[in-house]
Write a structure and sequence with these properties.
The chain folds into 2 domains: 149 residues, Aspartate Aminotransferase, domain 1 (Alpha-Beta Complex); 229 residues, Aspartate Aminotransferase, domain 2, CATH 3.40.640.10. The chain contains 13 helices and 17 strands. The longest helix is centred in the C-terminal third of the chain and has 22 residues. The relative contact order is 0.16.
Length: 397
């Protein structure tokens, strides 16, 4: 029985998988069980930012696996302490909580925002404003926070206390704020919502509004963070900071880890016993993540991400100038979306499948958007190959 059959027979059918079984990865390339090579322009959905099996990361994983994999958070470990120190030194934050995923990081942020006020006796402040088309996870709390109805289908009743307003609309946000709101939660660049960057003035106004109203600002940087947008954290592009930030995905370059960072003031909401995670921040994953952060933080590395992102968008816009059914090319750094006209006749999944046949891995979201999130080590020659393949497909329409 092959892997396709075993997976279909024994695993929950919650994923619409492409008919390929990968067995090896190196850099920006993946190989399937038939030996075919693919250029990866998805990175496991913005996870393998340093590419597959990065030598430095693989080395420390191997070393740590031979040393200490797990104890518990009832004890100290140097790997966890080192990663925490690295993240704090490179961010606005003063405290970090480690979990296993982006959903867990967002759960922690939601809990912290509520408890921050309730621990002070302000129990009426519990509602969190999030954005339409946002995505914050698949747990009950995080799907309740998500501003997409399709994510919530079949899971009613949702967790109460979430309000949704249009993204990049400061007037809508202002009208939703009252004395029951404890936080505003948003992605500086919406990923699953269509690769939609925040308007710079909008984010400044959001920060000012939160300060004026005395409420917390949460940035979900699970997809946009860790160098993906050309700075270590996407909010650095905009020159403002949140009170709470969540990270995951690329933080472990493939190993499962999530992190919630907060200012010292916001962190007061959590005290001994108020939140915990059995596997959060094990020596193995934090040792790997520490290496990842050090590599991604290099100024020269991030400069190259921005340059390659600019180049990629320029090449895609050259296609846009030739094909009227391309509505927009947008994004930051190497998180890029190409939006197709919905009346074009061929949706995003068509191009995902066709490119897979040609040896390129991309992703389709919202039916009409091609999402590109290659490893940050991608070369311009690889970008040229993908754009040429897209050109061929578009020209055949």
């Amino acid at each position: 029985m092959d892997s396709f059959q075993k997976s279909d027979d024994y695993i929950f059918q919650t994923y619409a998988r492409q008919p390929v079984c990968f067995v090896k990865g190196e850099g920006v390339t993946l190989w399937d069980d038939q030996g075919k090579a693919y250029l990866d322009f998805l990175s496991g959905i913005a996870v393998c930012n340093l590419g597959h099996c990065h030598p430095a990361v693989s080395k420390v994983i191997s070393q740590q696996a031979d040393t200490l994999v797990h104890v518990s958070n009832l004890f100290y470990t140097d790997c966890q302490a080192d990663l925490a120190s690295e993240l704090i030194s490179r961010s606005f934050a003063d405290r970090v909580f480690f979990g296993n995923s982006g959903a867990e990081a967002n759960e922690a942020a939601i809990k912290l925002a509520r408890r921050y006020f309730q621990s002070r006796g302000d129990s009426q402040r519990y509602r969190i404003i999030t954005m339409t088309q946002s995505f914050h996870g698949r747990t009950m709390a995080t799907l309740s926070a998500t501003g997409q109805d399709k994510i919530k289908d079949g899971f009613l009743p949702l967790l109460e206390g979430f309000v949704y307003v249009p993204f990049n609309d400061i007037d809508a946000l202002k009208s939703a704020v009252d004395d029951t709101v404890c936080a505003v939660m948003l992605e500086p660049v919406q990923g699953e919502g269509g690769v939609i960057p925040s308007d710079p003035e909008y984010l400044k106004q959001v920060r000012a509004l939160c300060d004026e109203q005395g409420i917390l600002l949460i940035f979900d940087e699970i997809q946009s963070g860790m160098g993906r947008c050309g700075t270590l954290f996407a909010h650095e592009i905009y020159g403002i900071t949140p009170d709470i930030m969540t990270l995951a995905k690329a933080l472990g370059n493939g190993l499962p880890i999530g992190a919630m960072l907060a200012t010292q003031d916001a962190a007061k909401g959590f005290t001994f016993g108020s939140h915990a995670s059995t596997f959060g921040g094990t020596p193995l994953v934090t040792r790997a993540a520490h290496e990842v952060v050090k590599i991604l933080s290099d100024t020269g590395f991030l400069d190259q991400v921005r340059k390659k992102g600019d180049y990629f968008r320029e090449q895609l816009r050259s296609l846009q100038s030739r094909y009227a059914f391309i509505r927009e090319v947008r994004g930051k750094g190497l998180l890029i979306g190409l939006e197709l006209d919905p009346d074009h006749g061929r949706n995003a999944s068509f191009y995902v499948s066709e490119l897979m046949e040609k040896g390129f891995i991309i992703n389709g979201i919202q039916d009409t958007i091609l999402r590109f999130a290659p490893p940050l080590i991608i070369e311009t020659e690889d970008i040229d190959r993908l754009v040429a393949a897209l050109d061929t497909l578009f020209d055949s329409n």
